[in-house]
Amino acid sequence: MSKPYIVIIAGGKGERFWPKSRSSKPKHLLPVVGTSPLLTQTLKRVRGLAPAGHIFVITSAVQAAEVRQCCRNLVPAANVVAEPVGRDTAAAVGLAALLVAQRDPEGVFAVLPADHVIHDTKAYRVDLKAAFAAAAADRVMVTIGISPTEPATGFGYIQRAGLWRECGGRPVYRVKRFVEKPQPSVAKGYLKSGDYVWNAGMFVWSVPVVAAAFAQHAPELAKGLAKISSAIGRGRPLKETLAKIYPTLPRISVDYALLEKSPNVVVIPSSFDWDDVGAWPAVVKHFPADTSGNVCRGHVVVEQGRGNLVMSEGKHLVTLLGVDDLIVVHTPDATLVCPKSKAQDIKALLKRVEVLERGARWL
Amino acid sequence: MSKPYIVIIAGGKGERFWPKSRSSKPKHLLPVVGTSPLLTQTLKRVRGLAPAGHIFVITSAVQAAEVRQCCRNLVPAANVVAEPVGRDTAAAVGLAALLVAQRDPEGVFAVLPADHVIHDTKAYRVDLKAAFAAAAADRVMVTIGISPTEPATGFGYIQRAGLWRECGGRPVYRVKRFVEKPQPSVAKGYLKSGDYVWNAGMFVWSVPVVAAAFAQHAPELAKGLAKISSAIGRGRPLKETLAKIYPTLPRISVDYALLEKSPNVVVIPSSFDWDDVGAWPAVVKHFPADTSGNVCRGHVVVEQGRGNLVMSEGKHLVTLLGVDDLIVVHTPDATLVCPKSKAQDIKALLKRVEVLERGARWL
Known about the structure:
- The first copy, chain A, is 31% helix and 25% strand.
- Chain A is of the alpha/beta class.
- In chain A, helix 3 packs across helix 6 (207-217), helix 6 crosses helix 7 and helix 7 (219-233) runs antiparallel to helix 8.
- The A-B interface holds A 19, 299, 301, 303-304, 312, 315-323, 326, 328, 330, 332-339, 341-342, 345-346, 348-349, 352-353, 356, 362 and B 19, 299, 301, 303-304, 312, 315-323, 326, 328, 330, 332-339, 341-342, 345-346, 348-349, 352-353, 356, 362.
């Protein structure tokens, strides 16, 4: 097959790691784990799987400048494409397919999230190569599913059916169904059965397969995408075309719009470690803790406290006295104090900030 | 009697209101309650009870500049005297007596703390005038005891005996004994009996009475003070003399050194409101709370939290999510997070800060 393409989806609203993350600097632009932004880590991880010119990054207008900064020497600047407005993942995948189709109407491409933490780059590349091989071999939509390590209730699951074939040394299974985030008892059953993997939003497929799926399962989206395709085919600038048509596309996830409805989905269970580092509490396991289980970054003193995550920027000293299992994150203009158990409610907090006079300056 | 003198003791290490208070800016230099520093509030409260030239402020070297700033237009700069080192309250009272004796060897003077919150200035002045009258009338050591409003365990108590006489319209009682901070059950008994008042460190007496008490009950201190007196009598500069002799004085409280041992102590139960605002939790009742009992100053958002005290300086936003009864104080260079119930352990925290490399810059 010809060289594959890789489209990194670098979206996200920057809420879950507030106040470090902001709308203009979401998780993938932060070194949440490691020393470089997660987007940079992702781009380095895929290096060699496709030529640099075959790699695209789809992001939002507000993040575009900083995303281009992260992409320097890794992706041509012209391959960083900004959505004028967010329209969920189906539209982004459609845009990805258009970008690839311009170069190669038969092209095989991967859609990958920008903000996951994966250390075993070797295994990751083996799995992706297997996925590229599967997508090139037949008209299938290939997903890489994460082999679950716990009965997580925060992810959707994919139930596999029988073996479809082996590709690149990896088993590829037919998919029986996609299931929503389960209740704890249900999740335990999934884990025990061994038939379920986590849906991590990693897909590999060819332009014709994606186009056919849009046409069949998401005709309204397909129509909007066709307009964009036709406009750029007539030489209209991409940015201007997106500004005009993209906002008219329906908001829908690619899982719901295409994958759950398609019969030709297959799955490769991952052989690499994976962490989506979904919110502050997930950061803890990536940093060393003190003898009381406190993870501290920057100038921090914890007295009579256990299991806290404390981050301070610059020369500011953050001190905790007599508190346990708290998240305290200090940045130059905003501070968050919240129990680990409440981190999922940060959106409610940010809604309150949003209604403040000039609250937007902190978002 | 000739016009009395007033000596304000403006010491303190600035620990209990950290990070707002620092060693160079303790509680009396902060507007902990109200809009001006507590020292300024104290000086305004005594205005008119004595001529400005009869008012002295004793402070520490590290605080002297800022104390003089607070005293502008209220106390002559030369009347602000800095201890070269802290030597507890007996030495400070001895120094006060020396300062007064220089002007009037028979002078009556009050020793008053700089960092209490008192709103009823009128009643306060009535009580102080009564105390001046009592101290001028006979060789007694007059204390103003705070009429207790709860069985507090954080203060020493003074048990009164029978009525000594009336002065300035206020009853003055003989003192039976001074008692240390009591256990809760004991404190309840004190409150119920009606015979006990809180020892708030407010004393009024004449130079000869204090001098006699030092000579009899604290001879070593008396000797040191005599050396200072003799040196300044010979025209030596006060600052130089204090630098030389003050560090040799024994460290002891005036309660322990003089009052507990003297038979001629009398007490006037206060007729004014009083709050020593001993630590962060005590601040709460002086500010309005929101409907969830949160007291917030500056840019603050509390979501799903009750009974918190949150203070932010400048343009920094402090947010709390899902926490109750927490104290969060943010200053430009340091932040404190601590449950109200742990505020008394702040010294342990500051000891930890002290051992940090460059930790002193935050103290």
